[in-house]
Amino acid sequence: MRAILHLAGLPLALGRFLKPLPSGFEHTPGSWAWMSYDEPDFRVLPGHFNRSVLYAPWNATVSDPTLNKVNDHLNYTDFVAYDPQFFDIIGPEATIEHLHLLPYQTHEASCWNPESKELFFAEWGPPGGNNGTHTWQYLMNTETNELRNITTDPPTVNAHGCTFYKGKMYVVTDGDHHESGQIVEIDPKTLKKTVLLNNVFEQPFIGFNDIDIDEDGNFWVTDSRSGINRAIIPWWPRTRPGLYVVNATTWRPKPVWYTNDFAVSSANGIAVTATVNAAVDPTYIYSNFALMAYDIDLEGTILTNPRLLNNPIAYYYDGLRVSRNGWIFGGAGQSVDIIHPVTGLTLGSIRVGGGLNVAVNVAFGKHEMWIVGKGGVWHVKGIKERLDRTW
Ligand SMILES: *[C@@H]1O[C@H](CO)[C@@H](O)[C@H](O)[C@H]1NC(C)=O
Ligand SMILES: *[C@@H]1O[C@H](CO)[C@@H](O)[C@H](O)[C@H]1NC(C)=O
Ligand SMILES: *[C@@H]1O[C@H](CO)[C@@H](O)[C@H](O)[C@H]1NC(C)=O
Ligand SMILES: *[C@@H]1O[C@H](CO)[C@@H](O)[C@H](O)[C@H]1NC(C)=O
Ligand SMILES: *[C@@H]1O[C@H](CO)[C@@H](O)[C@H](O)[C@H]1NC(C)=O
Ligand SMILES: CC(=O)N[C@H]1CO[C@H](CO)[C@@H](O)[C@@H]1O
Questions:
Q1: Signal sequence: where (predicted)?
Q2: What pTM did the predictor assign?
Q3: Residue 101: which of 145, 55, 56, 131 has the closest Cα?
Q4: How far from chain centre, in Å, is Cα 339?
Q5: Is the CB of 250 under 6 A from ligand 4?
Q6: Which of 8, 301, 329, 383 is deepest in the core (most CB within 10 A)?
């Protein structure tokens, strides 16, 4: 027997495509929907339907008027589940709030400082104007939500990724016409910048995209075409886009993965996980829209067992983070998707509204997170599971 159909705010007729919400989720401060292949009407859609992979499911072109209304409804939800685990991770108290509407250009490199309770992130300069180059970043006080425009000393040029580790912000940059991509350390109190690394045995990086730091303090950095695509990097010849590990003890950079296609593929988000009771950790890399998982060998210098973990339901994964319990959070177009680290199943989407909004990167607090992207900054709070990791 099915549960009584109850979809808050949704006429019953529309309900046949969506699965009734589990008990406890009928009246929540955030609005929810459950898209499930348990529903025969969703399994076999009527009429004509079509969408590009770059558009979200609720943005599909459909001929059935009821399904069209369902999509209009989905476009105004906050949380869309595809798997019951999503309800357990997010919980019924969660809400999402659009804190700041910022220009419709990329915001990324978000990281949260738990000591000062400040969120750091970058805003890409508009292409053209200033050559796409940006030498300043935002700091947001997450208690008052006040935004501050900061310039580090000396300035950090084209910040692209950030992670907070043991009291410092670690930022990677694309570089520009005057300097190669760098890994830098920023003291959050003095905003003093120290360059930690800027070359692979005298060769410039193409342009760093993202950074993660593992439990032992090793840096995992993706080197990407993003700066080339915006014509801010002049270097030639270039290496392939890929992933490097920089050993925390020896500081020696080593490539651990390269894209196959020099011309078109790139390397985007990276996240290292600590799997409980395991000596090897998988990492996740974006290439050709695929989210790949690898095991890291014991020395930390070779990746093994490559596997396609998932392909995003829509758009492509940009920033990736792994939460305390191992869930992968990936910015993917209009939502941040939560992905199971082993099965690769997409469990659900945290939506940042529709239209032109794009979720690019996330930063975790304890039971809250911030999302930055095109259209500004969002705050998701009241999340049931603890998100920030142990290091
Ligand atoms: C399907 O979608 C694609 C991409 O948006 C579009 O080019 C094409 O015309 C659509 N086809 C139909 C039959 O709607
Ligand atoms: C801007 O970019 C052009 C190439 O696209 C380059 O020649 C020029 O030096 C750049 N200007 C600055 C200030 O970096
Ligand atoms: C931030 O500061 C930089 C440098 O002073 C300036 O170019 C930029 O317009 C400022 N941006 C905002 C949003 O205040
Ligand atoms: C870093 O280098 C040290 C010293 O050579 C080595 O013991 C360790 O396994 C290396 N770790 C990684 C992740 O490369
Ligand atoms: C989806 O919602 C946004 C507001 O967040 C709105 O601007 C957009 O027009 C909506 N899209 C559709 C297809 O209804
Ligand atoms: C069918 C549909 O709603 N398409 C829209 C998907 O989103 C893009 C970007 O907002 C719109 O341009 C399309 O019209």
A1: 1-15
A2: 0.92
A3: 145
A4: 11
A5: yes
A6: 329
Q: For 59-109, what is each residue's pLDDT tens digit?
A: 999 999 999 999 999 999 999 999 999 999 999 999 999 999 998 989 999
**Distance, CA of 178 to CA of 233 (rounded, Å):** 9
The helix/strand/coil state of 40 is helix
| Fold (topology level) of 106-381 | Neuraminidase (2.120.10)
Backbone φ/ψ region at 251: left (φ over 0), alpha (ψ -120 to 50), beta: left
351 CA to centre of ligand 5 in angstroms: 12
Nearest CA to ligand 4 atom 8: 299
* Cβ of 101 below 6 Å from ligand 5: no
Ligand 5 neighbourhood includes 354 CB (under 6 angstroms): yes
Pick the residue whose CA is nearest to atom 3 on ligand 6.
59
Domains in the chain: boundaries: 2-77, 106-381
* pLDDT band at 3; cut points 50, 70, 90: very low
Distance 18 CA to ligand 1 centre (A): 24
The minimum-distance atom of ligand 2 relative to the CA of 178 is 14
- Hey, what are 104's tokens? 């419709």
Distance CA 304, CA 40 (A): 40
